[in-house]
Design brief:
alpha+beta; elongated; about 30% helix; 10 strands; four-stranded mixed sheet; single chain; four-stranded antiparallel sheet
Amino acid sequence: DVAAVAAADLPTTGVAMAWASFPCQDLSLAGGRRGLSATRSGAFWPFWRLLRDLHATGTRPPLVVVENVVGLLSGPDFAALGEALAELDLRFGALVIDAVQFLPQSRPRVFIVAVDARLPLGALAAPEPEPGPWLTASLRRAHDGLPGSLRQRWVWWRLPVPPPMTARVADLIEDDPVGVDWHPPAETTRLLEMMTPVNRAKVERAGAASTRRVGLLYKRTRDGRQRAEVRFDGVAGCLRTATGGSSRQTVLIVEGGAIRSRLLSPREAARLMGLPDDFRLPSAYNAAYHAMGDGVAAPAVAWLGKHLLTPLARAAPSFLLGQPLAPRLAAASPVPKSLAAVAD
């Protein structure tokens, strides 16, 4: 529990970065968007207090990354988080990175990259926002909605665009999966009956194809009814934590007149997160699937690390890597008044 950790428990000298991928449930539409004041997503504040206490002793890492769902960009939470970073004398900017740039999984996430205000940024930052996949309309709106004092601390990060993603879901699907069984025909029929005419038409077109087609299916509630929605575009939907049957993705294989279905296997889920087949997974299905649904797509983070985080860390002079400085805040510095309602 991050709330049970004290700043004195942490290493400081030579530390370049602190990272927080805090719980997303209260920032998502499904979670009612209760925000950073709610219990789960509110785990950000104990992390922030650790940084505050390190900052008070001049040992706060020069680089801080915060990752979460794009729902973080909506509402007052984004400005509250920006104000919290500003209290630590950090400049910050954000990028929306979708795993589909690297893997056959639609998984957009926002990465807020904050750096010590004294750190030279050079070519890693742009004077104006540059068009590209990392700059979305929601990110522009979030930036434009910040108060002027926070916009002055904003950084438009530069991140190159990777080569086109060529992998497809079919490349990752196992013929003989471990940990899951194929559904009996009656269950496959039930899934088909849960589809709207639009989704049934997708299955029919897949059956008319000359080759095997692999689709991914989620159950969703539409107009008060549970529906099965399938896609055959070679991309999986965003992996979720395994909290119920609807949160688990289903594989639908259509070959001629034959249709088979089963749950996505843990190993397939790991492949969709960019993890190698020798990556150790929990033996229990739910635990393995939960670990993948809670994770970050490895190639997306590797790209961010290679082209932005590592250069920033290398640019940090030795006096920013945990060498004590004159304290910026009193050791007992309170949470800023404007944040007190959510931080405490």
